[in-house]
């Protein structure tokens, strides 16, 4: 039986419909809030015009959702009894946890992410979405429609967590491990799906790899300005390790095995991430993912993913040059060993190094160097002894602090600049704006410091309270 269309503030008992969150392949998703408890849930309502085949998919999505329990897969909830009457054509409703931080597409669309997400955000995505995909595959489920719009964000105890949603196109492998029909989002689909060939879990590897690349660089890897029907014919003969294809000024397709600059990734993580993408973006579905590890029976791509996530990387800002240096730490590596690496790269002798945490507190030489690594990545600050400055930056130092000449040199070492022109207009503007903003604030802060002519930073008259005050100000830059 048909129902009247939804209206803002429609009430179902104690539940008030607040807004429409979005539209999926099979229906609309609405936000409902309980007026008594303030609980919020997302309710997916099937569209009237679904044919019999899609109605079956709708029912299958609900069945799949109800049996899944994982932090990185959105959780199904019981449909409140007061809402039962709004179901259309006797098709059940799907109630889910409400994720209030939007989706990955919204995050990627922010101007500051035009060159990709911050390194810490990329690592969080790898951890969360990778864990969710492995869970689905362990439960014999292929998602088949992974894309930024189907990754939602939720704040859990102050930490942003990624969750996979929209299993309407998911395939339960208990119904047969090889599938031959699909209608979904084309830009993230594996090549074999366009050709109507049989496929397995490796289609999710391709979609995940495409998302990883986009999160690292800000655009999709293969001729992203073309429709899939156009780019698949041009990319079909790419090399097994190629992870990107762009058209040069003459319209010729050029391939690369590397991630392009500019991006926000440290050199320490670039090579392993490129290796991961080379496994996930193989054209041959049989080779994609690297096969299974003979000992652990885990796909090689996820074994490499675990290695990346277990890496302890420290970013060190040289406060005299504003350059960021990144180092990979072993689990028990001492601070002395880290300082030797710093000396080799910066020519600042070990005895002249001062390593400060974001709070201004010096590192404890008795503890391992990993004392400064939280959630895998953190910045510390390097000053030469006797020239301690109050300049600091909370979180990761943006790559825009390097001069554009340095960025340009990095680009030319990775990929001809002409191949990146279509992607860099907005990127260059953003980098220049960030440079100008930082330098103006840095100048203001240094002027404030030097105005205290009667005080010496290293002298006895220097107030530690005043130093901490300046550190606090610099952390807001």
UniProtKB/TrEMBL annotation:
<keyword id="KW-0418">Kinase</keyword>
<dbReference type="GO" id="GO:0033209">
    <property type="term" value="P:tumor necrosis factor-mediated signaling pathway"/>
</dbReference>
<feature type="binding site">
    <location>
        <position position="44"/>
    </location>
    <ligand>
        <name>ATP</name>
    </ligand>
</feature>
<dbReference type="InterPro" id="IPR011009">
    <property type="entry name" value="Kinase-like_dom_sf"/>
</dbReference>
<keyword id="KW-0539">Nucleus</keyword>
<keyword id="KW-0597">Phosphoprotein</keyword>
<dbReference type="InterPro" id="IPR008271">
    <property type="entry name" value="Ser/Thr_kinase_AS"/>
</dbReference>
<dbReference type="Pfam" id="PF00069">
    <property type="entry name" value="Pkinase"/>
</dbReference>
<dbReference type="GO" id="GO:0005524">
    <property type="term" value="F:ATP binding"/>
</dbReference>
<keyword id="KW-0723">Serine/threonine-protein kinase</keyword>
<dbReference type="Pfam" id="PF12179">
    <property type="entry name" value="IKKbetaNEMObind"/>
</dbReference>
<dbReference type="InterPro" id="IPR022007">
    <property type="entry name" value="IKKbetaNEMObind"/>
</dbReference>
<dbReference type="GO" id="GO:0008384">
    <property type="term" value="F:IkappaB kinase activity"/>
</dbReference>
<keyword id="KW-0808">Transferase</keyword>
<dbReference type="GO" id="GO:0045944">
    <property type="term" value="P:positive regulation of transcription by RNA polymerase II"/>
</dbReference>
<dbReference type="InterPro" id="IPR051180">
    <property type="entry name" value="IKK"/>
</dbReference>
<protein>
    <recommendedName>
        <fullName>Inhibitor of nuclear factor kappa-B kinase subunit alpha</fullName>
        <ecNumber>2.7.11.10</ecNumber>
    </recommendedName>
</protein>
<feature type="domain" description="Protein kinase">
    <location>
        <begin position="15"/>
        <end position="328"/>
    </location>
</feature>
<keyword id="KW-0963">Cytoplasm</keyword>
<dbReference type="GO" id="GO:0005634">
    <property type="term" value="C:nucleus"/>
</dbReference>
<dbReference type="InterPro" id="IPR017441">
    <property type="entry name" value="Protein_kinase_ATP_BS"/>
</dbReference>
<keyword id="KW-0067">ATP-binding</keyword>
<dbReference type="GO" id="GO:0008385">
    <property type="term" value="C:IkappaB kinase complex"/>
</dbReference>
<dbReference type="InterPro" id="IPR000719">
    <property type="entry name" value="Prot_kinase_dom"/>
</dbReference>
<comment type="similarity">
    <text>Belongs to the protein kinase superfamily.</text>
</comment>
<keyword id="KW-0547">Nucleotide-binding</keyword>
């Amino acid at each position: 039986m048909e129902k009247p269309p939804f209206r803002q503030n429609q009430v179902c008992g104690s539940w008030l419909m607040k807004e429409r969150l979005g539209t999926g392949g099979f229906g609309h998703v609405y936000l409902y809030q309980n007026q008594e408890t303030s609980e919020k849930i997302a309710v997916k309502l099937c569209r009237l015009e679904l044919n019999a085949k899609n109605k079956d998919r709708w029912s299958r999505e609900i069945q799949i959702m109800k049996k899944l329990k994982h932090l990185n897969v959105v959780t199904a909830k019981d449909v409140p009894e007061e809402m039962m009457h709004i179901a259309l054509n006797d098709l059940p409703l799907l109630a889910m946890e409400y994720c209030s931080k939007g989706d990955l597409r919204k995050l990627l669309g922010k101007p500051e992410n035009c060159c990709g997400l911050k390194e810490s955000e990329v690592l969080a995505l790898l951890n969360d979405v990778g864990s969710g995909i492995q869970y689905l595959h362990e439960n014999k489920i292929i998602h088949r429609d992974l894309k930024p719009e189907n990754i939602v964000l939720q704040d859990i105890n102050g930490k942003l967590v990624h969750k996979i949603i929209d299993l309407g196109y998911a395939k339960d492998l208990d119904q047969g491990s090889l599938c031959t029909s699909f209608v979904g989002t084309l830009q993230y689909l594996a090549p074999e799906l366009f050709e109507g060939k049989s496929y397995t879990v490796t289609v999710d590897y391709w979609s995940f790899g495409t998302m990883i690349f986009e999160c690292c660089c800000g655009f999709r890897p293969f001729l992203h300005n073309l429709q899939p029907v156009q780019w698949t014919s041009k990319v079909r003969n790419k090399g097994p390790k190629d992870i990107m294809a762009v058209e040069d000024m003459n319209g010729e397709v050029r391939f690369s095995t590397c991630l392009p600059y500019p991006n926000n990734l440290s050199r320490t993580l670039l090579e392993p991430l490129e290796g991961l993408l080379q496994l996930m973006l193989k054209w041959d579905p049989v080779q994609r993912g690297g096969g299974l590890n003979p000992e652990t029976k885990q796909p090689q791509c996820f074994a490499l993913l675990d290695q990346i996530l277990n890496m302890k990387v420290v970013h060190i800002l040289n406060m005299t040059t504003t350059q960021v240096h990144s180092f990979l730490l072993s689990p028990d590596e001492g601070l002395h060993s880290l300082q030797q690496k710093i000396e080799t790269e910066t020519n600042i002798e070990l005895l002249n190094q001062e390593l400060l945490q974001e709070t201004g507190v010096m590192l404890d030489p008795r503890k391992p160097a990993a004392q400064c690594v939280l959630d895998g990545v953190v910045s510390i600050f390097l000053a030469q002894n006797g020239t301690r400055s109050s300049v600091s930056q909370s979180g990761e130092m943006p790559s825009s602090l390097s001069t554009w000449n340095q960025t340009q040199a990095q680009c030319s070492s990775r990929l001809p600049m002409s191949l990146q022109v279509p992607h860099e207009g907005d990127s260059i503007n953003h980098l220049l704006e960030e440079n100008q903003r930082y330098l103006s604030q840095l100048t203001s802060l240094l002027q404030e410091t030097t105005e205290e002519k009667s005080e010496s930073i290293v002298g006895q008259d220097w107030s530690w309270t005043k130093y901490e005050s300046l550190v606090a100000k610099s952390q807001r830059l």
